[in-house]
Design a protein that fits this description.
Elements: E1 3-8, H1 11-20, E2 24-27, H2 40-49, E3 55-57, H3 70-85, E4 90-93, H4 104-113, E5 118-121, H5 131-141, E6 145-148, H6 159-168, E7 173-176, H7 185-189, E8 195-198, E9 201-205, E10 226-230, H8 232-247
Parallel strand pairs: 1-2, 1-8, 2-3, 4-5, 5-6, 6-7
Antiparallel strand pairs: 9-10
Length: about 250
């Protein structure tokens, strides 16, 4: 069965995505960093909602590269422990060594900590060395799915590698993500993938009425007085396309 995973950056986004028909949620903080581990407060509040949908928090202690020191790995292990205690069904993580290979020693520790959870290897894969070899390694390590843009800026740009990975995979789901929208998801479905990942986002104005344009609180080039939220209509459009593809 084809599934649509929606990447959400707030509990309100999760509620919107769930109501619009998302099959699964990847929960993140830190949109401008490409996704960071959600806060303790958000994870506890979300667990208390007991939504009947798989929710997989990302385990990523900081932005930037995916080579982690032991303090960062220990933080990731503690975060996985919390996610298990709170009853979430899966986790999303990844780690590389300085040569762009899988950090096998630390990944093995993270996998052991994740026993009983669904495991997704995130887009650290998109900056790895020798992706076809790495895909086989991840499959052998027991990952359930791989989130990837095909090592390009968007999944549509990387569709060639995504198709190769999908044909090569024996048991691991290849899930394209990055720039996936209703106007291009059909192209990805046509190469045989069974899951897609999208933020399905739109921008809304901040409710702030007083704006000091002389001060910025982040290094992001985006306006701090715009907010990114899940677009329910976009989720519904993608699910309609998936349903039609499945039925055809």
């Amino acid at each position: 069965m084809m599934k649509l995973e929606i990447c959400c950056y707030s509990i309100e986004d999760i509620k919107i995505a769930f109501a619009a028909g998302a099959d699964r949620i990847e929960f993140c903080a830190g949109r401008s960093d490409g996704g960071l581990t959600p806060s303790y407060g958000d994870l506890v509040q979300l667990s208390e909602l007991k939504l009947p949908i798989p929710i997989h928090p990302i385990i990523r202690p900081r932005g930037g590269d995916f080579y982690y020191n032991q303090t960062e790995i220990n933080t990731m292990l503690k975060d996985i422990e919390l996610i298990k205690e709170l009853g979430f069904s899966g986790v999303v993580f990844g780690a590389l060594d300085v040569l762009g290979n899988i950090d096998t020693q630390n990944i093995t520790r993270l996998i052991k900590a994740s026993a009983g959870l669904s495991m997704t290897f995130h887009r650290a894969f998109d900056v790895c060395n020798n992706p076809l070899m790495v895909q086989k390694q991840l499959e052998d390590l027991g990952f359930n799915r791989l989130l990837t843009s095909g090592q390009k800026a968007t999944a549509i740009d990387g569709i060639g590698l995504i198709e190769q990975l999908n044909k090569q995979s024996q048991s691991m789901i290849i899930m394209p993500g990055c720039g996936v929208k209703s106007n291009n998801i059909q192209q990805l479905l046509d190469v045989g993938v069974t899951e897609c990942h999208s933020s399905a986002s739109k921008t809304i104005d901040s409710p702030m009425q007083y704006i000091n344009q002389d001060v910025s609180m982040s290094h992001s080039q985006n306006s701090e007085f715009l907010r990114y939220v899940v677009d329910a209509n976009e989720v519904k459009k993608m699910q309609t396309i998936i349903a039609h593809h499945t039925a055809s």
